Amino acid sequence: MASESNRLPVELRRGFYETVFRRRDIRSFLPDPIPDEVLARVLVAAHHAGSVGFTQPWSFLIVRDLDRRQRIKRVFEEERIINAAQFDLARRAEFMALKLEGILEAPLNLIVTCERGRFGPGVLGKTALDDVEVYSTCLAVQNLWLAARAEGLGVGWVSILRNDAIRDIFQIPEAILPVAYLCIGYVEAFPPRPMLEDVGWAKRLSPRALLRFDSWENDSGDGDELARLVEDASIWREIFPPEQWPSERLQQDHHENQEK
Amino acid sequence: MASESNRLPVELRRGFYETVFRRRDIRSFLPDPIPDEVLARVLVAAHHAGSVGFTQPWSFLIVRDLDRRQRIKRVFEEERIINAAQFDLARRAEFMALKLEGILEAPLNLIVTCERGRFGPGVLGKTALDDVEVYSTCLAVQNLWLAARAEGLGVGWVSILRNDAIRDIFQIPEAILPVAYLCIGYVEAFPPRPMLEDVGWAKRLSPRALLRFDSWENDSGDGDELARLVEDASIWREIFPPEQWPSERLQQDHHENQEK
Predict the structure, then answer these.
(1) What interface predicted TM-score (ipTM) does this complex get?
(2) Could you tell me how many CB contacts below 8 A there are between chain A and chain B?
């Protein structure tokens, strides 16, 4: 059967799904250095993301220099104040109590950039949308993030930095877009749930609420088996035998969804 | 050791890396239906991507309706001509000979959208960059793409469609950005190399050429162990024992890089 001939054996699928469900946005790091061999695997995995027209528009700027990281940290502090001002007083206090980055403590910072038109102005797969290469670059970021998790490395994305400041500090030309500023390093532990969920900042949305059917207006999925199954933990039985149930993670998700 | 306490066991890491290296952009599909249980797993994996401020800005529009897909196919044909005009005559002929989508033949189309400010105008992790939620949405796309591959499902991203046309055909409001229009289905086989590499449209870049060190200008990596290792196949020995070497894939990569 077609559906079975190309799928990966169940133990390999389990490896993939474990990586996805155990990945976290990390903001606290151990100082232990990252072996070059491990970082090399993570970068090669990032480089094997798909890209529009096979343009591979990404580059990886390895940031070890502490002086530049201190300058970035100051930019972060400025933007953090701006970010805080977006919230009302109660939420602002909550926001200011959160640790949001590990720029100086992580053994490594890494900037993933995007070069539009790397092979010339014409790009297979690009007409109306100018951002397709940026989208590809984000795919590489996710490969990197997942590979890091598999290797036991935490990754945190610092998303409030200004690109003009990043360009200035790292001499990045105007034609190159800094897409992701990442902190990477080993961690004490990967929390079972996202930190922002744990502290009550936001809740995980029910997957069923994210589905639409053939038209945006049709969000009910009433009677649609798919709408039922995205909230049914039994879909994981094929992948995770009961005694190797991946985590409280999935069970919690299921439990929470049941309550809604 | 920190570096070993949180990493996944080698057989699970292998599952992750196999998924990454075997994923392809697919444009030819078998008509076999996708079991809802399999699609549900793929969607839940997508939903477990990281997102700025845990906003989970994505939605998944499941497209089974053939009328709407025929309208999308016509938009594709218009944009394909525009795309072709970007290339010189020889390359244009090459372009027109390529199969670039499976809109009608795939059993499923799926649109991944992004809703900025889903929980209000203030977003934790968003100040200067308006696109952070779009970046998050792309992370979900990559989770989806990889999960599909693990399940034996091919995914193709049709990136030349106009968003105004997509909005019109699927009644998507102005506030919602269509990010990825995907074709999904089972395949005869996953090619060992990207189609665009196989036909000679573009080459895989050497990973070493994508590295920069502390400053954009410093791209040499001379004497840097990381720069050497990203092109050294021996970094995979820990993950893939020789008899389970994942594919010609990595060996080819290595071989090609050696020739440069």
Answers:
(1) 0.94
(2) 395
